Amino acid sequence: MNNKILSFFNSYNLRRVDESNGIDWILFFATLPLLGAGLVTMNSFTGDGAFFNKQLIWIGLSLLIFFVFSFIDFRFLRKTWISVSLFIFSCVSLTTLYAVGKVTKGAISWFHFGAISFQPSDAIKLVVIIILAKYFSRRHIEIANIKHILVSGFYAFVIFSLVLVQPDFGSAIIIFFIWFGMVLISGISKKHLMGMVMIGILLFTIAWNFGFQDYQKNRIKNFINPMADIHGTGYNAYQSAIAVGSGQLFGKGVGYGTQSRLKFLPEYQTDFIFAAFAEEWGFFGVVILISLFGIVIWRIIVNTMRGATNFEMLFGSGIAVLIIVHFIINIGMNIQLLPVTGTTLPFLSYGGTHLLTEFAGLGILMGMRRYRRVAHKDVAQNEFVGP
Questions:
Q1: 3-class DSSP state for residue 295?
Q2: Tens-digit pLDDT profile for residues 51-68
Q3: In the 8-state DSSP scheme, what is residue 140?
Q4: Is the distance from CB of 270 to CB of 344 less than 8 angstroms?
Q5: Digit-coded pLDDT (tens) for 254-268
Q6: How is the chain split into domains, by residue range?
């Protein structure tokens, strides 16, 4: 971690926290309205309740994982063989997709087990956070050495490449930003940062010429010129922007969102659920939604700052980056500020794997909270973020 962050953390003592303080209830209760907003929105434009009922099951399983994980001592994750095993398992899982995975919407991204489907790239985002937290926690003092940036980048790049060739550009870009965010948090010189930017441009050029599918290129072209093909590749983003704008101040009301209800807005239960929500709840509803996300991120950061070691602090930082990047990219593509990448909105979008991953990450953070570091009494009294 960089010196400024470490100097702040050094103002804390490390002691065992009482078991009853393991769960951050502010964080937990802030996620419930978000889950409810997703359920209400997807139920308002489907009369049969198919999405609603299935999502209830996924929410129940996700909350169960959250509470189970909150009682586990995750200090075993600091062991090198754990991170190495997770890296190998991730590579094997992603490679196995090409043998047994099923093509869905042009990508081999899902394992299908009867009626249950599982997207490994979601869970692997959590694995990337663990691997990078382990790597940087042992080398934070030497992070200025370009070697550690390259080695950590190699781990992330292998997984990034296996996800990209599925092709799943949305998940691949999330993995890149997790690595980039954790590198910035760990501390990096401006010279190395500029080098990373140049490497990123080079990799994007290579991916554009040899990796991206035509539909992915068209999405980016449409982002540059949104009105070029609103009846083709730009249709989704165009209809999403209409839905968001039509909500105005107070929205049209639950069940009265015409863009989603009349099926003008595609993927309204997943990629564009923010647009469907904004149409029905309006500007004030969006402000409340963003505020709830702000509370979730705030509490993640609070718990991260109390991490027992650099590993816990880096892991919490990675979880914050994961949710922030998902949030920014999803809303950005819903309002035509970013290309459409198939990125879900945390806690709201329909689907089980992203929910399980999010609550697993939060559950691990709560488990780490049980042996967090606690502020001196005089520091705690003057600290804005609270206990």
A1: helix
A2: 788 889 999 999 999 999
A3: G
A4: yes
A5: 777 666 666 667 777
A6: 3-382
